[in-house]
Write a structure and sequence with these properties.
Layout lengths: L1 E10 L2 E12 L4 E5 L4 H4 L1 H11 L8 E7 L11 H12 L10 E3 L2 E2 L5 E2 L4 H10 L4 E5 L3 H5 L5 E5 L2 H8 L12 H6 L16 H13 L3 E5 L5 H6 L10 H14 L14 E2 L7 H5 E2 L4 E2 L1 H4 L4 E4 L7 H5 L2 H6 L1 E6 L2 E6 L3 E6 L17 H8 L4 H5 L3 E5 L4 H5 L7 H18 L13 H7 L4 H13 L4 H17 L7 H18 L2
Parallel strand pairs: 3-4, 5-8, 8-9, 10-17, 10-18, 11-14, 14-17
Antiparallel strand pairs: 1-2, 2-4, 6-7, 12-13, 15-16
Helix pairs in contact: 2-3, 8-18, 8-21, 20-22, 21-22
C-alpha cells in the first residue's frame, strides 16, 4: 500500500515543496524514514506513532517506510509530523485519497495528538499558492499568519483527530480570513517617542531627515548624554509607512525566525533592531548550525542601530561591508546556500574616545595614542560606507529649560515623504527606489553638476583625500538634499552640506 501527501520546508526565506511518501507492506515490523533528514525530522517517527495511538488509530504490525522527497535537500524542522501522519492514515484507508488532493499540510504533533505551531508558515503558504494548491492545513496558532495570503484557503487545526474528521467531511472548518487592507487602515503608528522630545541638536535632526529621505547610513559621534541614542530611536517615527509588499517581505523573515504569532499576522511598522555590542558574527549576519536570519535581516526595511560602535568586535563590524553594498547576505553551508535580505538603514553611535570627551582637553583624560587606538577600531572601508557623519554637541541648560514646542515627527515625515515620492517617480524605470542605491552609471545620469559645482567637489576631493566611494556618496547625499528642497539640479549649497557630512569623520580619524 502506497500513498503520498504534500508538505513544505523553508530554504532561506522562501518555501519549497516536499513530497511525503508512505509505503506500508508486509515484512519485519519497522518504521523507517529516509530522505536526507535532520535529527528533529528523524525523531518524527516516535511523535507520529504515539500521536496516532493516542488519537485512536492503531498501526498495523507491518513495515512502514516514509520518504521525504527531494532526497538531495536536507529536511529540517518539525513541520513534517502532521503530513507524515496523514500520509499513513490515507495509506491505511482512514482518509480517502481524493480528499487530500491540492492540499498542502504542515504541523508539529504532540504525543497526545495536539498540533503545535511551526515557523515559516507565511513563505510556505505563499509558495503553495504559486504551486497551484487550493488549500493549506496549518496549526491553528499559525492560521492568521498564513491567511494574509489571499486566493488560497488556510485551514487552522488544533488536533490530529480534528484533521481526520475534516478530511473525511465529518466536520466543517471555515478557512481563516484576515482583512489585510483593514489591518493597515486601523494601524496607528503613534508612539510614546517623538522628535518633539529632543531639545537642541538642530544640525543632527537635519542630518537625520536627510538620511531617512534617501535611506543613507548615518553615524552620530559625540559626548555621552548628548542625545545620540534618543535621535536614533526616533528615526522610525519619520520613516514612511510600510507598503503591503514591504510588509510581506519583512514578515517572511520574522515568520522564518518564529517571531510572528496569531495576534500579529503581519509586521506593520518598520523594524528597529538594536543588538548589544557583544553580539556574535553569526547572530548579526545569520547562519549557524541550522541556518536562519540574523539581526541585519530582521532589520530589513528598517533601522539597524549599533550603539557604542567601537565596542563591537572588529571582525563583526567588518562583515557588514558586503551587506551594506549588496543589500542582502548569502550564507553558504555544506547542504546549500541561503540568501537573506539585508536592505536596512545603518544608524551607529559612538563616543569620540574611551572617556567620551575628546577633543575637550579640560574634560578628556585620554592620551593621543588612546584616542587613536579607540577610533582605530572603526576601519576606513566601513567609514566610507557611511554616507553621513554628524557631531552631536552637548546641549546647554537654557536649551533644556526653554519652553519651545519642537518640530514633531509627523511634520518631519511629511517632508521625507515628499522627497521619497520625487525619488520613486525619478527611478520608476530603474530597479532602485532611493538615492542611496544609485550606481556609478546612474550617478552620471541623475547627479549632473554645473562647472562651479564640479570645481567645488574637485577641491573637496583633494583637500579631504576622499576615496572614490566617498566621492559617490557625497553626490548621493547632495541629490537627496536637492530633493528635499524640490530642486531639479544639485547646487553648490547642496554639495557644501553633503561635504560637511563627510568632513567630520576626517576631524577625528585624520589626527
Amino acid at each position: 500500500m502506497f500513498n503520498k501527501t504534500f508538505s513544505a520546508a523553508v530554504h532561506g526565506i522562501n518555501g519549497f515543496l516536499v513530497q511525503v511518501e508512505a509505503d506500508i507492506s508486509d515484512g519485519l515490523p519497522e518504521f523507517l524514514m529516509v530522505g536526507y533528514l535532520a535529527s528533529e525530522v528523524k525523531e518524527a517517527k516516535e511523535r507520529v506513532r504515539i500521536s496516532l495511538k493516542n488519537s485512536g488509530f492503531k498501526l498495523p504490525v507491518k513495515r512502514i517506510t516514509i520518504n521525504l522527497s527531494p532526497a538531495d535537500v536536507k529536511k529540517e524542522g518539525t513541520a513534517f509530523d502532521l503530513p507524515i501522519a496523514v500520509a499513513i492514515l490515507v495509506t491505511l484507508g482512514f482518509i480517502p485519497e481524493e480528499n487530500i488532493r491540492d492540499t498542502l499540510i504542515i504541523g508539529e504533533l504532540s504525543l497526545n495528538g495536539e498540533i503545535n505551531k511551526v515557523n515559516g508558515v507565511l513563505p510556505i503558504v505563499k509558495m503553495a499558492l504559486g504551486q497551484g494548491f487550493s488549500r493549506c492545513i496549518v496549526p491553528l496558532d499559525n492560521a492568521k499568519e498564513g491567511a494574509v495570503i489571499s486566493d488560497i484557503d488556510v485551514i487552522g487545526v488544533k488536533s490530529l483527530e480534528e484533521v481526520v474528521r475534516y478530511l473525511n467531511n465529518e466536520s466543517i472548518i471555515e478557512p481563516e480570513y484576515v482583512d489585510v487592507e483593514k489591518l493597515f487602515q486601523h494601524y496607528d503608528e503613534e508612539t510614546d517617542i517623538d522628535f518633539s522630545d529632543i531639545h537642541g541638536q538642530v544640525a543632527a535632526k537635519r542630518a537625520v531627515e536627510i538620511a531617512v529621505s534617501g535611506m543613507h547610513n548615518i553615524l552620530f559621534i559625540g559626548t555621552p548624554g548628548a542625545g545620540k541614542t534618543m535621535l536614533a530611536k526616533r528615526i522610525p517615527t519619520i520613516m514612511p509607512e510600510l507598503t503591503l509588499e514591504e510588509s510581506m517581505e519583512i514578515s517572511k523573515v520574522y515568520s522564518v525566525f518564529g517571531l510572528l504569532n496569531n495576534d500579529q499576522s503581519l509586521i506593520l511598522k518598520r523594524p528597529f533592531r538594536s543588538p548589544h555590542h557583544t553580539i556574535s558574527l553569526t547572530a548579526l549576519t545569520g547562519g549557524g548550525r541550522k541556518a536562519r536570519p540574523g539581526e541585519i535581516s530582521l532589520a530589513n526595511g528598517g533601522v539597524l542601530f549599533l550603539d557604542e560602535l567601537p565596542e563591537f568586535n572588529k571582525n563583526t563590524l567588518e562583515i557588514l561591508r558586503q551587506p551594506l553594498e549588496d543589500k542582502d547576505v548569502t550564507i553558504t553551508r555544506l547542504n546549500g546556500s541561503f540568501r537573506y535580505p539585508a536592505n536596512f538603514m545603518l544608524v551607529a553611535a559612538m563616543n569620540p574616545c574611551n572617556c567620551g570627551y575628546y577633543p575637550d582637553r579640560n574634560r578628556c583624560s585620554c592620551s593621543v595614542n588612546q584616542v587613536q587606538r579607540y577610533l582605530g577600531k572603526i576601519s576606513q572601508p566601513l567609514l566610507d560606507r557611511i554616507d553621513i557623519c554628524i557631531e552631536t554637541l552637548q546641549i546647554n541648560y537654557k536649551e533644556l529649560e526653554q519652553n519651545i514646542i519642537n518640530e514633531s515627527s509627523r511634520e518631519i515625515r511629511k517632508r521625507v515623504m515628499k522627497a521619497r515620492m520625487i525619488q520613486l517617480e525619478r527611478y520608476q524605470e530603474e530597479e532602485i527606489h532611493f538615492n542611496s542605491e544609485l550606481t556609478p552609471k546612474m550617478i552620471q545620469k541623475y547627479c549632473n553638476l554645473g562647472a562651479s559645482e564640479k570645481r567645488l567637489l574637485e577641491k573637496a576631493f583633494h583637500h579631504l583625500n576622499l576615496s572614490a566611494r566617498a566621492y559617490h556618496r557625497i553626490l548621493k547625499v547632495a541629490r537627496t538634499i536637492a530633493d528635499l528642497e524640490d530642486s531639479l539640479d544639485i547646487k553648490a549649497s547642496h554639495l557644501n552640506e553633503a561635504i560637511c557630512y563627510r568632513s567630520i569623520d576626517k576631524k577625528y580619524w585624520s589626527m
